[in-house]
Design brief:
By secondary structure, the protein is mainly α. The protein has two domains: 110 residues, Orthogonal Bundle (Arc Repressor Mutant, subunit A), CATH 1.10.10; 93 residues, no CATH class. 63% of the residues lie in helices and 7% in strands. The protein is elongated, with a radius of gyration of 20 Å. It starts with a helix and ends with a helix.
Length: 210
């Protein structure tokens, strides 16, 4: 069977299964699907496979029968970034799925298999995570950071961001920091992720004793 025919035979996934999953993870899932089928990870193949799998999210506005190539390309660009590293390669030569990308694809696969009732619970959890990130972005330390006054951030303000105090155990603060970084990454809040990395570097001695 020719590669083009194999891609066209890819079956659409029920839209209720992926409505709460972000675009980037869906694209990585499509890349993994192509890889498992032994097909070339070219831009064209990825665009078609993603559209075949998830037409509700990857069709052109006003033209649901056609794929939105630009949307897919933007996802590929984000997934190749240093912060994620889910994909490798370049458009002219084809893409590669990294080990981290495979983990993301496997996680997306598990989400696609979750019943609708459980998805509603996941949406509730997402809202909770959004609330946590909102607390970080409203903290005094973050306000100083975005105003270019990051050198004025105090250890007490750091602890406030990490949901602790100066008396909190360092293990607790480090654990909270790791959790916040994961949440910011999941929600694609790059500006918050960069802020948290800045805090970790700035207060390395305070957090890690070095």
């Amino acid at each position: 069977m020719k590669a083009s025919t194999q891609i066209l035979d890819v079956k659409e996934i029920d839209s209720s299964s992926y409505e709460s999953i972000d675009l980037d993870r869906l694209v990585v899932y499509a890349v993994a699907k192509l890889s498992d089928m032994g097909l070339e990870l070219s831009l064209e193949n990825i665009i078609v496979a993603t559209f075949k799998l998830f037409p509700k999210k990857f069709s052109l506005v006003g033209y649901p029968e056609f794929p939105d190539a630009t949307r897919v390309e933007k996802c590929l660009w984000r997934c190749k970034g240093k912060k994620r590293g889910w994909l490798g390669g370049k458009t002219p030569h084809g893409y590669t799925l990294t080990d981290r990308g495979r983990m993301v694809a496997d996680h997306a696969s598990s989400l696609l298999a979750v019943p609708l009732e459980a998805k509603h619970k996941a949406i509730s959890q997402t809202r909770r995570k959004e609330s946590i990130v909102a607390e970080v972005s409203s903290a005094p330390a973050y306000q100083k950071y975005i105003q270019g006054e990051e050198d004025k951030i105090t250890e007490a303000e750091l602890c406030y961001v990490l949901q602790g105090t100066l008396d909190s155990l360092k293990d607790t603060l480090r654990g909270n920091l790791d959790s916040l970084k994961v949440i910011a990454d999941e929600l694609q809040r790059d500006e918050v992720s960069e802020f948290l990395v800045f805090l970790e570097n700035r207060f390395t001695k305070f957090l890690y004793g070095r």
